[in-house]
Amino acid sequence: MLARVTSGATIGLNSILVEVEVDIPDQGFPGFFIVGLPGKAVKEACERVRAAIKNSGFKFPNKRITVNLTPADLPKEGPAYDLPIALGILIADKQLPNKLQDSLVFGELSLEGTLRHTNGALPLALLAKEKGVSTVLLPKDNAQEAAMISELNVIPVASLDKLLGHIEEEDPILPTPHRQI
Question: In this structure, are strands 14-23 and 64-70 parallel, antiparallel, or unpaired?
Fold first, then answer.
């Protein structure tokens, strides 16, 4: 199955949308591949994401997993793609419903599944507003920064398992209130 999660890349002071596509076909040898000009930290996401999914109480699929980061001609740097990759895998593996159509997602995962402060929250929140995206899912430590942008639902995520409870509407996370600058 194919899943899509919207994220973003910050290049200097500008940001652009990055679509994280995850394909998990029924056939093929098990493996985990990231394509679309990933940098070293993005390639290392394979191990962070695998451990975070398992340590958050979910099953990591023993299948061929291909992650495509588009646009493919833009170099992708840093660990901000961990969270959208993990969510894409869980959606493509049918462990999670896809309720992220109007969300921009980013964040670095620890091996235990908690989210760490990730650079670029303000430019990515500005990008979300500019592109008409209503919700930003990001590490809890970045929420105050992103909440400076009005008209966004800024969802502060502490861990992968807490976010999955929010998406499945079992344990909603309250949005961070907008902060006046």
Answer: antiparallel
How far apart CA 135 and CA 127 sit, in angstroms, is: 11
Residues 6+ away with beta carbon under 8 Å from 63: 24, 25, 26, 28, 30, 93
Which tokens sit at 152? Answer: 């966004």
Of 111, 134, 37, 24, give the one whose Cα is nearest residue 78: 37
pLDDT tier, 181 (very low <50, low <70, confident <90, very high otherwise): low
DSSP-derived secondary structure for 123-141: HHHHHHHHTT--EEEEEGG
The DSSP bridge pattern shows strands 64-70 and 31-35 to be parallel
DSSP state of 113: S
Residue 155: how many CB atoms within 10 A of its CB? 22
Write down the number of H helices and E strands in the chain.
6, 9
Structure tokens at 18: 């990055």
Mean pLDDT of the chain: 95
Helix (H) or strand (E) segment spanning residue 103 = strand 103-105
Mean pLDDT value of segment 124-139: 97
pLDDT of residue 169: 93
Q: Is residue 25 within 8 Å of residue 61, measured between CB atoms?
A: no
- Cα dihedral 181, 141, 36, 34 in deg (nearest 10): -170
